[in-house]
Amino acid sequence: MRWSALCSATTPKSPRPGVVHRRLAVYRCRGIDHGRRLHVPVLDVRPPERRGLTPWYPTAPWAQPLEDFMPTTLGSLRRLVLSPSLESATFERRGFPALPGATAEHLEAIPQAVICGFEWGIDTRSQWELERRLSLVTPEHIGFAYEGATMACTVLDAMRGGRGHKTRDLLSGPGQPHIFLAYIGIGFAMARLPRPLWKRVVPDLTTSAYHPVMSWLAVDGYGFDRAYFETRKWVDEQKVPAAYPWRDRPEYFHRAVDQGIGRALWFIHGGLPDGVANAVGEFAPGRHADLWSGAGLAATFAGGADADGLRALRKLAGDHRAQLALGMVFAVKARSHAGFIPDHSAAAARILGDLSVSSAVRLADDTATAEKPGTPDPAYELWRRAIAAHFSALPA
Asked: What's the alpha-carbon Rg for the chain, to the nearest Å?
């Protein structure tokens, strides 16, 4: 599912001044499934003074232009080209294993919340309206909706040549508690943007204590997106991504991608431990650790397995139990930072890592590492390594 910039819009001249006229805009788009030309009649709703005309409506404060109250046609086009439907995110549509109704509904609601957030981010004109819509989402799913909204803001900023500030404004405001998942949303946008635009996708978020260390989650999000929507290539064929100098660490890029692929495996196999373990086993052994940490993060943050399933997952991880628990700790930390710990996250902390929620958060805080210039590994990996070391030192 690739995105291509809208281009070649042709607009006939206004038939006469002072009249709101219809124009025929022809956009060349690459759709989700195939290229096509869209012939879209567009109502020019700009205020007359912005079109060099005399205003025909009263200028009282309450008489605001219509465009302030409606989604843009271009926004609707962006949504059409970029956004999958809610149905396309269902397991049946994606060809994933059939699951019991409650489990499928629980897991499918997560990508669907992301899609809703994306559509709101594309369509709404003001940050207030976007934040208001997001605030109405349930505590369990609001982080996922922020993922989608951040993806939309990242795409819109990129369309402005990197000069936009929608992403920064969103994540410096009410989105700050959801910054972990918001980084992942940036990664979703990266999957639809050409690589030359990647260098500008992460805004300056120095108000957050986790920036820029946790910006590697954007690469994780990119890996998740590729595995979820191009499963044959990235999972069945185990594609290795080309290196990219993210945070000046091109050699670490593929590892962060694998962490996202590991998260995707949890959804692709419906939270079934055997399916996840078998899928990990198909990859080269050197990739297993990062894949297991991604699976642990998804199992903890998203849920979808009962206590027996989590115990089976821990057993199947084998020598990579520490990496599985590492993913759990990051998930609990992200949930705690957002201010909501669902029961399934608390259960995962207890079963995958023998920790309470508060102990898992404390472990994450105590091992946090700042960026150290000149070190071969990013601070993100040093942090992960310190958490994993805690579990490696424990008896199996």
From this structure: 23
Q: Where are the domains of the chain?
A: 22-71, 81-392
Tens-digit pLDDT string for the chain (396 aa): 333 332 333 333 433 433 333 333 332 333 333 333 333 333 344 444 454 544 333 333 333 333 333 344 444 445 445 567 788 778 888 888 878 888 989 999 999 999 999 999 998 989 999 999 999 999 999 999 999 999 999 999 998 887 889 999 999 999 999 999 999 999 999 999 999 999 999 999 988 999 999 999 999 999 999 999 999 999 999 999 999 999 999 999 999 999 999 999 999 999 999 999 999 999 999 999 999 999 999 999 999 999 999 999 999 999 999 999 999 999 999 999 999 999 999 999 999 999 999 999 999 999 999 887 778 899 999 999 999 999 999 986
Under a CB-based contact definition with an 8 Å cutoff, are residues 243 and 250 in contact? yes
**Residues pairing with 7 in the sheet:** 28
For residues 274 and 326, give the distance between their C-alpha atoms in angstroms, rounded to a whole number: 20
